[in-house]
Amino acid sequence: MKLEKKSIYILITYLIVYLLPSFLNSFFKFTHSMIFSVQIIDYLAGALILGFLAFHNMPQNLPEKKSSHTWQIILWGILGFIIVIFLQSLILKVTVQTGGSAASQNTSAILKIIKNYPLFVLPIIIGAPIMEEIVFRKTLFGNLSNLFGFLGPKVSQILTALISSGLFAIAHSDGHIVLYATIGLWFCWLYHHTGKIQTSMIAHILMNSLVVLPFLGL
Question: Where in the numbering of this chain does the CAAX prenyl protease 2/Lysostaphin resistance protein A-like domain appear (predicted)?
Fold first, then answer.
């Protein structure tokens, strides 16, 4: 019961963090610089709060029955990053060949913001990846696996991987549902393989960093 209760707290907290800037803006009518400052603080604070909820006295879920050494977590995080870039390139290539567009509205909008507000890079490479891995992988994939444990470990983890990856794709919906769902499934596998959510966090942080840091000339 404790696992389910803390999972609910995590999901509610994430929803509050996600909606808070827009809620505050509706009352105070922030300028552009102010709303982005609020978002930076909101996402970084949200990552800290969700991290506390996710790791403080949290019972183990099914993926976390495995144990991995620190070097394995780092190695698979880096390999996971390399493979997710390959998967992205492959899926986008197929998308273009089938008449679709490789452009991402989400990425374009984020880069425009970072161009004017460089500190906005912090929630993109730190806040968002940490929160999304805690919510979509650790909670919706990992913790929900316990709820469907009566189906058997393999079936329950496949089912929750599909659920969490589908929701991950919807949350990033910009015309690339297959791409984001594939990324979600791959990050689920990384978490499942090592039993540590830090593995998919590393891959996710590196993936986002590859997009935005070169834009800043870093």
Answer: 117-209
218 pLDDT tier (thresholds 50, 70, 90): low
Separation of alpha carbons 193 and 164, rounded Å? 17
190 is written with which tokens? Answer: 């990384």
Residue 148 is given by DSSP the state: T
Per-residue model confidence as pLDDT tens digits over 97-138: 988 888 788 888 888 889 889 999 999 999 999 999 999 999
Q: What is the pTM of this model?
A: 0.94
Q: Specify whether the CB–CB gap between 143 and 4 falls below 8 A.
A: yes
Q: Are 205 and 126 in contact (CB under 8 A)?
A: yes
CA gap 167, 159 in Å, rounded: 13
Closest to 104 (Cα-Cα) out of 9, 7, 178, 41 = 178
Q: In this predicted model, what pLDDT tens digit does every residue of 25-57 receive, in sequence order?
A: 998 888 888 999 999 999 999 999 999 999 998
Nearest-10 crossing angle of helices 32-55, 2-28: 170
**Size of the chain, expressed as the number of residues it contains:** 218
End-to-end CA distance of the chain: 46
Percentage of the chain surpassing pLDDT 90? Answer: 69
Q: Where are the domains of the chain?
A: 62-216
Q: Which of 211, 165, 204 is nearest to 184 (CA)?
A: 165
Residue 176, token pair as written in the block: 């690339």
Q: Residue 180 class from Cβ within 10 Å (0-12 exposed, 13-18 middle, 19+ buried)?
A: buried
